[in-house]
Amino acid sequence: MIAEGMFFFWIVMILVSLFAQYWIIRLAVRGGVEDAERRRLAKIAELQFWDEVEAKRRAADAD
Hints:
mainly alpha; 1 helix
């Protein structure tokens, strides 16, 4: 009886650990994807800013 109970205990513990690992990895991957998206949007904003600066510089030189 005791051995049977320990068997089910370990099965439950393995399932709980697999479930926890799945969610930890899933959240880490999602965070990495969101971080990459933020970096991409920041790079686009930076490039647009420098395009505007260059356009103003060209307009000032044309006068």
